[in-house]
Design brief:
By secondary structure, the chain is α+β, with helices and mostly antiparallel strands. Helices cover 21% and strands 46% of the residues.
């Protein structure tokens, strides 16, 4: 009966160890100070740094905004994520404005969820501001979840449990 008890204890240890799910990732960046002087456009080239502690499924949007009733007068011309190693991933304009026809309005850029490696990353947002009445801007929101990997403590519990199962089985023979 003792080998059965030992085997059940080891099995319950292995099941209790399981895997640890990484916490959700939520990042937010913005530039709310884009304003033209009335003579020239207000060009911007913003860069926001962040660190991913583990491989992460990340996606998100960038949306332009204004405090004024009309607008916004912010034209994002490029947006991308760049890893410390130099690899880049483009965001796609999913709701645009025809600036050549003097239209204005909200722009939305989207990054479809993609697995990104752990490490240092930068979000780059490049564009032009035409508003002269009040500062305008954009807000970027990136959300995701980390890869579900066993923690070292969980792995060692599994190893102890498997060793216990092996010893219990050997003793029962």
């Amino acid at each position: 009966m003792k080998p059965l008890t030992a085997a059940l204890a080891a099995l319950s240890l292995a099941l209790a160890a399981g895997t640890a799910a990484a916490a959700p990732v939520s990042l937010s960046f913005s530039d709310n100070g884009i304003k033209s002087d009335g003579n020239d456009i207000a060009a911007f080239n913003d860069s926001f740094s962040f660190l991913l502690n583990a491989q992460t499924l990340l996606g998100g949007t960038i949306t332009t905004h204004t405090p004024e009733a009309s607008g916004p007068w912010v034209n994002i011309t490029s947006a991308y994520l760049e890893a410390a190693g130099g690899q880049t991933y483009q965001l796609v304009e999913t709701h645009g404005v025809n600036w050549d026809a003097d239209e204005f309005g909200v722009e939305t850029w989207t990054f479809n969820p993609m697995w990104l490696s752990a490490g240092s990353w930068e979000l780059h947002v490049i564009g032009e501001g035409y508003g002269v009445k009040a500062p305008e801007g954009f807000t970027a929101a990136l959300n995701g979840r980390g890869n579900e990997l066993p923690e070292p403590a969980a792995l060692s519990l599994v190893a102890v449990a498997l060793a216990g199962l092996s010893m219990a089985r050997r003793r029962s023979r």
